[in-house]
Amino acid sequence: MNTLMTLPSDWDGMPASFIEGALFAANANPKPMEPEIWLPVLAGSTVDGEAVMPSDEDKVAVLNHFEMQYRTVKAGEYQLPTELQWQENGEANAVLAEFAKGFLTVWQYIEPNWEAQIASDGTMRMLSALLTTLMLCVDEAGTLEQMEQAGFMGMPAPSELYPQLPLMLTEVMMAADQLQIGAGAQAINPYKNVGRNDPCPCESGKKFKQCCGKSA
Question: How many domains does the chain have?
């Protein structure tokens, strides 16, 4: 996958690069979420201060691309669209900045779900690096100034971070997917709160480990 979403001819919402980033943030969610929560962001318009939901036709087109993005990442086949790839002149272009804005805009809905997770240190470092890189894409000078004021030292140069963006995106999305799978497996395990020496829930009178726990 190396092309941006083809927008409907009458689309008047956010640009395709913004949508690509927004969908990546939604796909990097460690907890299931209804698309209706973040879809209005893509329309880019409001009525009486409320974000407008895309039309049913546009919604289908966006969600189809959302699913395609997920499947290609899972299959290890995703590549950033050509327009979003890091330019060797060392400057993040405007299209890449729109991608970053899309991700960070939807991230406000996703971040609380990550905060509620117990993820590995490696995953959290990768997530932190991804968010930092995206903020640099939007405003490199401002982000560097904020980091300096916050006392962050020894950070890689932005020119070293940008080329790693595809890897960061893929790793974070795959980590979110594994967290969802793990949570689902725990939720459907009827014995998750039963100790091995507890009485078996089937009321056989045996200990769990000597009864249903043998195959659990």
Answer: 1
Distances (CA, A) of 130 to 13, 171, 188: 26, 10, 32
Q: What angle do CA 168, 173, 175 make, to 5 degrees?
A: 95
Instruction: Establish if 203 belongs to a structural domain.
Output: yes
Q: How many C-beta neighbours within 10 Å does residue 65 have? A: 19
Residue 62 structure tokens:
């966006």
DSSP letter string, 65-107: HHHHHHHHHHTT-----GGGSPPTTS---HHHHHHHHHHHHHH
pLDDT in tens, 89-136: 645 478 899 999 999 999 999 999 999 988 899 999 999 999 999 999
pTM to 2 decimals?
0.79
Report the CATH number at residue 66: 1.20.120
pLDDT in tens, 143-193: 888 888 888 877 778 888 888 898 999 999 999 999 988 754 444 455 556
Q: Which residue range(s) make up the domain with 117?
A: 16-210
Distance CA 129, CA 122 (A): 11
Asked if residues 161 and 147 have their Cβ atoms less than 8 Å apart, the reply is: no
Residue 141 lies in a domain: yes
